[in-house]
Amino acid sequence: MPAFRFEAIDSSGKTRRGVLEADSARAARSQLRVQALTPLVVEAAGNQMRDTRHARLAFGRRLSQREQAIFTRQLASLLTAGLPLDEILSVLAEQAERDYVRELVAAIRAEILGGQSLAGALSVHQQDFPEIYRALVSAGEQTGKLDIVLARLADYIEQRNTLRQKIQLAFTYPAIVTIVAFGIVMFLLSYVVPQVVSVFSSTKQQLPFLTIAMLGLSNFVKQGWWGMLIAALLIGGVLRRILQQPRSRLAFHRWLLDVPLLGKLVRGYNTVRFASTLAILTAAGVPILRALQAAGETLNNVAMRQNIDQAIVRVREGTSLSRALAGTHTFAPVLIHLIRAGEATGDLTTMLERAAAGEAAELERRTLFLTSLLEPLLILAMGGVVLVIVLAVMMPIIELNQMVG
């Protein structure tokens, strides 16, 4: 039975929104009137969501990573319990905390009741369910192990979100220190330095070079801040336009991989995503070439993705997966050795999971090391800048004291 999104007014004049099932829009309006509601808008949930895709993205209306993980986990648990899929989706729609999630689940249920498979229903909402997600669901439906695949997929999403949050939190403190330091320096240059140095202007004292330079910088900050802002925006726009070009983007991503410390973080983060995705795809029974292609698409580094494309060509020609990946010189030797061991023992999935877990732990260690190194460097840099400003202010006072003495 189709699902309809409605907006109606109750007897007290309050607006109510939700989703209901009916044979047609007219039947949906009749149901609302029976419930003492005056219908204002009644639209098919699936069609409405398709037509307003770009509007949702513009206003941030889409399934968050947390909501995607919860939806997948609940779906897997209820499938394991043996409930029918349409009944499961009905329960999930009722339990949804957000109107958008409720509409999304109702639209998926409507597609399934219309004869679509779960993967086919999810393909209508590609902005909420990426290709790798849909490929895994399709593989689970074909092999009859949808509940197992969804459980592993939920684990994968949760682990990926946890890793991303740890990295973001690790860099939060250095970012805050940088912003605070920048604000303090701007305040000193725009207010404190001019106020203090203006005292000496009436004495016609020859100011030191450092003080004169600091005054010039202060005047530039006070009067030319808009110029700096425009220049920053222009430079950012030009750089963004350059990086949109395929060759420039590829060259930049190759350079990123070679940057000390940062390159290892980029390489490690993409390795975790690749190994985890490949593990879950092979466990679902996806053919190795299709699994490699899907796992390569999860990489956000274009240079590494290009290397995976080259490895796919070698595997298609008959080369083993470990030798094909080793030839790309992209991944750590540990990953290659574990894949080779998995090929030898016939347990590739377990070895990929072990490689992903090990690389994730190593990535966390490197992130903590980098942030612990950044923190004292930022404090020292801030202290150095403040010291220069203080010297610029104090030097005229010291010289004046010497003249008086």
Automatic annotation (TrEMBL):
Subcellular location field: Cell inner membrane
Q: How does it sit in the membrane?
A: Multi-pass membrane protein
Recorded superkingdom: Bacteria
InterPro entries registered for this protein in UniProt: GspF/PilC (IPR003004), T2SS_GspF (IPR011850), T2SS_GspF_dom (IPR018076), T2SS_GspF_sf (IPR042094)
UniProt KW keywords:
Cell inner membrane, Cell membrane, Membrane, Transmembrane, Transmembrane helix
Source organism of this protein record: Mycoavidus cysteinexigens
Protein family according to the UniProt entry: Belongs to the GSP F family.
Q: Which residues form the signal peptide?
A: none
What's the protein here called?
Answer: General secretion pathway protein F
GO terms under biological process: protein secretion by the type II secretion system
Q: Provide one Gene Ontology cellular component.
A: type II protein secretion system complex
